[in-house]
Amino acid sequence: MNRSKKLKNNKSNIVYNIVAYSSIILFSVFCLLPFWLMVAGAFTDESAIIQNGYQLFPKKFSLAAFDTIFAGNRVLNSYKVTVLVTIMGTTLAMILTSMMAYGLSLKTIKYRNQISFYVVFTMLFSGGLVPWYILITQYLKLQDTIWVLFVPYLINPWYMFLLRKFFTTIPESLIESAKIDGANDFYIFVKIALPLSLPALATIGLFYSLFFWNDWWLGLLFVNDRRLQPLQLLLRALVSNLSSEVQALNPNAKQGIIPPAYSVRMATSIITIGPIILFYPFVQKYFVKGLTVGAVKG
Amino acid sequence: MFKKLICLLLAGIMLVSIFTACGSKTNDSTTTNSTNESSDEAKSGSEKSGSEELAPYEMSAFLPGDTPLHLDEVLEEANKKLKDALNVTLSINFASWTDFPNKAQVMIAAGDETDLIFDAPWMHLPQMISAGAYLDLEQLLNEHAPDLLKAFPKLMIDANRQNGKIMGIPLGDVLSSYHGLWIRGDLREKYGMPPIETIEQYEQYLMKVKENEAGMIPLTWLGNYCIGPNGFYDAGYDVVLFGGNNAEVDIFATADEVEEIVPIYENPHVLEWINMVRKWYLAGLIEKDQMAQKDETGAFKSGKVASIKGDYIVGTIQNQIESIIPGAKVEFISFEGKNDKHVTNFAQWNFICVNANAKDPVRVVKFLNWMYEDQANYDLLRYGIKDVHWVDAGDKMYDLPQGIDASKNYNFPGYTLMWNPNFERTLATSSEDDKFYYKKLRDENMLVPSMLTGFTPDLEPVKNEIAKVSAIWPSTMLPILNGSVDISELPKAQKKLEDAGYLKIVEEAKKQVSEFLANKK
Fold this sequence. Notes:
The complex is a heterodimer. Chain A has helices spanning 2-42, 46-52, 64-70, 74-105, 112-124, 129-139, 157-168, 172-180, 185-196, 198-214, 217-222, 231-247, 261-290. Chain A folds into two domains: 2-52; 73-240, MetI-like (MetI-like fold, Orthogonal Bundle), CATH 1.10.3720.10. Chain A is mostly helical. In chain A, helix 1 runs antiparallel to helix 13 (261-290). The N and C termini of chain A lie far apart (52 Å). The longest helix of chain A has 41 residues, at 2-42. The relative contact order of chain A is 0.13. By secondary structure, chain B is an alpha/beta fold. Chain B has 18 helices and 15 strands. In chain B, strand 6 (238-242) and strand 7 form a beta hairpin. The longest helix of chain B is centred in the N-terminal third of the chain and has 48 residues, at 2-49. Chain B is globular and about 75 Å long. The A-B interface holds A 47, 50-51, 68, 71-72, 125, 128-131, 133-134, 137-138, 220-221, 224, 226, 236-238, 240-241, 244-247, 249-259 and B 14, 17, 21, 24, 65-67, 69, 91, 93-99, 103, 106-107, 109-112, 297-298, 301-303, 311, 313, 315-316, 319-320, 322-324, 400, 406-409, 411, 427, 429-430.
């Protein structure tokens, strides 16, 4: 009796497993297929793409797209710039944002509401593009330095409020007892508040690093020095110019070369996702918890 | 009470911020004015000191496109020459085509001092001019740029004035645009047909393709657009599309007259075209889904289509198509006689402008002049270092040095800084046809200025009508113009266009043209 029940259970389990696994497999195929198309497209010969469109397996294998991208060492150099900007930017942004958020979360700070209001107000009503450009180029004179690629984005008010919300969930009694034991505010911040907020910090750190990694806008506006061009800007320019080059009359392309416009688009995607895709698994365990940051109001 | 006060305060702040936002614009223009004056002073100052003792000057240009490979080497070489000639160090910055317009706009609004900026009527030249972003070059050119004025045919400069002023140097490797079609030469030869010169022959070619090539579309073109004024009903005329592509009033001009301006649905040339294109459509010579076509060049290259709208320079397409379809040949055809004189308005599409905030406009103009002082100067910036990036092939031609990988060579986008019909070289390996058209369109004697040379439509007064008409154009007029809807639908379309204010655009066109012609005399 007992045994048959177990069997039945097993049977329904098997059905459940089959359904669950097959739907998950199907779903992951849906996710992986476009990704694979991208990889395959990057390695396909341009004329094959023009003739047959993107295909799952390259009919004519070619590295021309990567050849075009890496011509002239510019991509490697930009890679270094972007990695540096992402690391420095994320670190500094995390330090500044969490310090400000923690400060604003403390009830003992007298003007915290006024400061919050100031942050919200400037977040909603900013001076606009041109005054900002003038501030950075003519007053701060940051253009054509590595600093300009991350300093303007060091505090994102949105993330700051997200973190503040998280810090307010730390019980006040905990902070008080630490104080009684003789800890100062900075010690409490570093030893108590930060460790307790790891999920939020990981999430926001990931957001920041993605943000710095993907940014081309600052580079476009403020960087003329070609050695300081961030990766995304360079690749963006590359794709945009190649597409117009296909149409335009490029006499140098006269020797029977087809500018690999289609495959370059795919190849640039592969290049840009590189490090960031490696970063995901490390923060993933915090990520799920971090997603609910600020979801519970109270 | 306290809350109310705060609300009031907030509202006040917002109001103030709105006013300051508006005010900052007027401030901007005054600052540009004042810098204008100061640059004028600088100008007179440098003139007094004479050309022998020029202070060093860092000149910068901002252009669209990709930074050419090896630009630094070439600039280093050019700067040696520029240092001796003008004591100038030149640097050139590029932003991609997608980003260039925005960045240029921000830079100009913020009072950036970059000396040379690319602009074009299809980008934001008119707006920038009315914002006072660029200098009027007339006087500067007359005083400091004799070689430049010699290099550019007078008609080319005069036809490209903006509101009567020279707001930028028009850049073009030829003096006129030229419309036509591409066909597959190998197919034409297969059918034993002579080179195509008339519309009848072209129709025959399309029919032959339909009969012989299963699965091949004889003719298609970009969906949102009518191909008629691209070589069909404009042969022998200079046609101005007043109101832009989707609200157009077609004005037909020749060397000695401008035909009466009528709405598009009464225009005899257009009606003739509509009848013909409908016939072709019903006969299956035009792609059924032409209106949805987005990439006709791609379709042509992959051999799915036998004819598309094409440029007079076949150039790269020939090699591209050959590497996909062995033996394929691209031919440019035009229904204007090959050796007939071409009627044109000498319009150019790209301009290099001098920033109104440039510190030393005189030196900037002198630099522009320097490029045309000597063919060698032009060659250096345009083609790179001689015998390294290019070799002289004689007779105003150039070639790539032996064993150079073209895709890794120096290749400056000339149309953004210097293109000039008298200085531009032709690639020695170009096809005979390409060479022929380059020569023809660079030769003033092969071109006839139309009555409308120098006429620039001012669309500001009918802006609203154009917006309304172009919103309904794709669903009313365009299908008729492209043959997918019968001409019997024309009255309905006419009614809708008239309701949207199309006749106002016609009236404005008439008014502006008659004013232009009156001033001309």
